[in-house]
Amino acid sequence: MITVRGLAKYYGAYQAIEALDFSISRGEIVGLLGLNGAGKSTVLKILGAFLVPSAGYAEVAGCSIADNPQAVRRAIGFLPDSPPLYHEMSVDAYLAYVLRLKVGRLSRAELERQRDEALDRTALTAERHRTLGELSHGFAQRVGIAQAIIHKPPVLILDEPINGLDPVQIVEMRDLILSFRHEHTVILSSHILSEITRTCDRILILDQGQLVAQGAEAELAKSMRGDKKITATTAQDPQAAVATIKKLNGVDAVACQQNARGEYELTLQATADVRSQVAQQLVAYELLALSTAEAGLEALFMQLVSAAPRRTGEQA
After folding, report:
1. Where are the domains of the chain?
2. Order of strands across the sheet with 287-294?
């Protein structure tokens, strides 16, 4: 459904993205993950035919973004990082306006049917007569989703759809996006790792304009070094032992903080199971607990993006 080969974009001398290659199958939900300035928004704008690439090829729903950008725009629903709303319009009037723009002439009955379906899908029916400028950020995001799906496009492109939402709204938005699986092909960007994990079938990790990894979380973990997260709890302050633990073979990082109960919690990132060595160092500080788990997406992500120095003058 989406094919990208050798995609690059320059802003003057600055290279925002470089030689990207990936594909997305029909019905997948794929997450574009990266730090601010990694190039996520640039990729999405190119796929939406809103930006012209400097090099490379991209195809969306069988249409080349270079040869047939209008067909690409008809085939997608696009939610930018700020919803494209006219604040003086009502929700009803705005969605009717968007639908006419996207599909042209419609009978009144068909327009109302498709608008009502989009309102129902995004839980906006009760807000339909409100002015857009009066809506909370959460409802404004829902209107942004409604305008993206109202013409039933095969591809949805969502740029930071949960940005600025409160915890309840994040869960509601996650459930809404998951409901699109198999009906739409979805590519979305985020820098919130937990949401990418819960929402997406696969992950594309961007760092400084380059695609550094792609796959499901389990596949990424398998292809990496197999890092482990080791946690330990002590009754006494183990700070004197931290320097020694950091020098253990296979230990990458150590953090120590005091919890609400006055206990001390150590978190280690390691490429080997060093629990026995850690226990030897901490037993004198009244070791209360020691456990290990395979590193999650957060550790994998930090491993991938922390090696190179940050670029200056970055575009989103």
Report:
1. 2-222, 228-294
2. 251-258, 264-270, 228-234, 287-294
**pLDDT tens, residue by residue, 12-51:** 989 999 999 999 999 999 999 988 889 999 999 999 999 9
pLDDT in tens, 219-266: 776 665 556 789 999 999 999 999 999 999 989 889 999 999 999 999
CA 313 to each of CA 16, 36, 58, 225: distance values in angstroms, whole numbers, following the listed order: 10, 12, 26, 32
Domain 2-222 homologous superfamily, CATH = P-loop containing nucleotide triphosphate hydrolases (3.40.50.300)
d(CA 246, CA 230): 13
Q: In CATH, what number does 228-294 get?
A: 3.30.70.100
CB atoms inside a 10 Å sphere around CB 23? 13
